[in-house]
Structure formats: C-alpha cells, structure tokens
Amino acid sequence: MNKFVTEQEVTERGVYNEVVSLLAHMADQDKNKIALRIASIAKTKLASVVRVLLEKLQQDEQNRVAIYYILEGVLQQDTGGLEMRLVNKIISLASEQMRETREATNEVKVAASNTLVTLARCYFDDVMYELHCHLKPPKLPEEFILVTLGNLSSAYALDCIPFVEVTLSTMFSMLELVNDSRMRQAFCGVLEQWSRAVRLFLASWEKYPFPKVGELRLCNHFLPVYSHVTSNWLTCEELELKQAVIKALGPMMSLLPHKEEYQGQIFEQMSWLLEQYKESTDVFHVTKSLSQLLEVSGEYKIPLPKRKFQAICSALHNQLCSQAKPLSMENHTELVYCIVQLARSSPDDLIAFLHSQLEIENEAVRVASLNLLRAIVGADLPETRLKKFLIVKAVKSTFSDQNATVRKAVLHFIRTLLSSESVENCAAWDMVAHVFREFSVSTSKLVLWPRLLEYVVPAQYTGTLKPLCRCLRELAEKKQQEGEEAACLDYGGPVKFPTPQGLLARLLVSRP
What we know:
Layout: H1 7-24, H2 31-42, H3 46-59, H4 64-75, H5 84-99, H6 106-132, H7 143-155, H8 164-172, H9 181-202, H10 215-220, H11 222-232, H12 239-253, H13 260-275, H14 283-299, H15 306-321, H16 329-345, H17 347-358, H18 363-379, H19 388-396, H20 404-419, H21 428-442, H22 465-481, H23 484-487, H24 500-510
C-alpha cells in the first residue's frame, strides 16, 4: 500500500466511512435524520457523497428505496458543478433500475423516477435525452419512462416546450400498439401533463427564454393523439383507465378550440364527458376537465352551441342540487367555477337559465341557483357588470318564498351584490327594502337602528349619505309605528350618536 496518501484521499475516505456508517444504521434509526445528515455532508463534499450512494444503490438491493430517497435529497442542492461523469452515472443507473421488468419493485421504480426528475432541475436536457432514447417505435417504452416523462412536464413545464413536437409525434406512432390498460393510463398521464405545460406556456409567453413557437402550430401537435384517444379509448370499461382518459381530455381539449375547424370535434366529446356524471366515477375530474375547456371558451369568446350550452348548464346545476351523494369541497368549488366561466361566454343565456331554475318550487334548486348568481356577481366579470338588473330581477322572483334556507340564500346574495361595484340601475333599493322586511319578519329588534346614525356626520362616508338617509328614514318610520318611546334615542348608551345640531348641519351642507 502506498505510504504517501494525499489530503484529498484522506477526505474521500472520511466521507466514505461516515456515509457508509450512516447507511448501515438505517434499519434502527430515523431515516429522515440520516438523510438530513448526509445532505449536510454533501454541501461541501457533493461528488464524494454521490459516489458512495451510487455504489450502495448497486450493492444494497434491500435498501434501494431509502438510498434513492437520500440521493434525491442530496440532488435538491445546487448540483450545477457536479462532474458530468457522475451525472451520467446517476441517469443511467436510475433509468436502468426503473425499467427493470422482473426484480425491481414499483417502489424502487418510483424512487428512481423521482430522482431523475430532481436531477433534471440542473440537467434537464440530459434527462430528457435519456428518456427519448427509450421512446423508439415500434417497441413500446417501459411504463416508468412515460411516468417520468409526465412528471418532468409537471415539474418543468416551460423546459418541455422545445420537445413537444418530437414527443407527441413519437407517442402518436405508438398508440396503435397500446392495448394494455396500465400503459394506456401511462400514455394518458403524459398527454395530460404535457397539455398543461403547453397551456401554461401560452399564458406566459414573456417568461419563455427560447424562440417563440406559433400558437396554432404548437397546439396542432395534440390533434392526432386527441383524435386517437377519443376514437378508440372512450369505450373502456375499466374505472382507472376511464379516469385517466377523463383527466387527459380536459387539458387536450383546452388547446384545440383556437382553430374553428376543430371546435365541432371538441364540442362533440363534451357530451361524453357530461355522461360521465351518471357513472360511478370520481366526478371531480369530469368537472375539472370541463372547467379547463370552458375557461378557454370564455377567454377567447368561443360560443358554445345552444344545445351544448343548455346541456352543460343542466348537468352542472344538477350536480349542485343533487342530494344523492354529498359533493366534495373541491368538486363544489370547481362546479361554481364552471358556471362563472359560462357567464363569460354567454351571460344572457346563463342568467335566463338560472332564472328558470328559480321558478321551480324546490329548496335545493332555488338555493343552488341563488348561490350561483351570488358567485357571478362576486366574480365582478366585465361581461356581467351591465347584466346585474337581469340578475336582480331573477332573485326578486324568490322574495315570496318563506323557506328559511331560501331566505338566507337571498340575504347572502344581497350582501354580495351591495358589496360589489356598479350597483346603479339594477334595482338595488328593492334588495335593501327586502332586507328591512326580513328584519321585521325575523325579529322585533331592528339592530340597524340606531347604529346607522353613527355614519351620517363623518366626512369619509359622504358617498353613502343618500342610501344611508333612505335606510334611516325607513327605520325611523318603523320605530315610530311602535310608539314615541321606541323612537327615542338613548344618548347614554354604547352607540356614539351625533347631536341633533350636528345632524342638521350635516344635512344642510349636503343638500343639493
């Protein structure tokens, strides 16, 4: 053995021994603490730590998942200075182990895939090149090549844009060969994530560092794969595959309506999506796919065919009204978002639809419709600001309903309306009058009296003086009907009333 050992070799041995010792205790110690300790060593000795972990990944089959987890944590640091020999070793080893068809478990494949995605933060092109080396038709790729391809797009959407054409064209050439359900799910996962990446890119041109790609040209790459999926995979019966198809359809559909000749094909598939509400599927993904298409329709003012529009309104409304099974919070939120998007593209038709639903004497139907109209008003869309008089007219049709839940929904609507901008010329005073009537029905004590008097004199409330005085007049008349004593003010109470002289001066100054 050579007696003359360099300082670097001593350091290498020290790192090797410490990391090996830590790995040896994974069975009886906290794996997270061990991972943090090794990541801390890697801050100053990155290459040395990576070499040890790569060696152990090849030797220790039992602990591969844990070692990949540690390696992933190490690679989350700045790895830009890592020598390419080690980078290539990580890529080849992880790629090999996630493609093993016999010995490697799914847990190992997931861990190897995640490690590649993390490494791509600094070495994206190298990881993408490796994946494309295994996309060679007519041979189908291993499942986790596709899984990693989808996860790369999810993590680094804009970096994927230069690879859209080659990736989609290669995948299209393989689709005829894909008969296995799990592989179809994997293909759908890639289509979903890459569609989202393109959508994100189209929404943020200015952030993209590469030469601009034509919008239509970029979206056109999805049409062949979309056509194949909708022509051949929609009839699948397997639940997991159907869910994967549904999740992929929405993002793909949202890319295609930009071109008029594609719209008929897109709208045709909306009927299939709506039918899925009747199936025993996770309906949230149906709603999510619809929302992505409706978002584009509203953004680009793409009109929906009349019958499709009515079918969508009915399906969404039925979901909100149905008492067959409770809605998840995320699905409820997405359903309301869909309705708001419909208000962007066809506000008059949507308001008319909801008005027609309010005429149905059913608590669930009326409450759902009132809540949707409240959401539309609260969204303050340019398309609906001048339509508030139609919305108020629809809500007024429920004023005679004595159902407590409906009355409460009406009051929530009024609160949102009066808090919004541009309430002029929409019969807002009818709404205010209704609030007073509700107070008189609900309680003998009008809590607005006399507290509103506090806001008459301060200058910052000048803009509200006219409606304020009208409210106070109606309240005072109500109190006078109860008797002179009820109308008297208690100046010793907690409310800081303005003096009669102050009120008079304020009104005289404000008189037109």
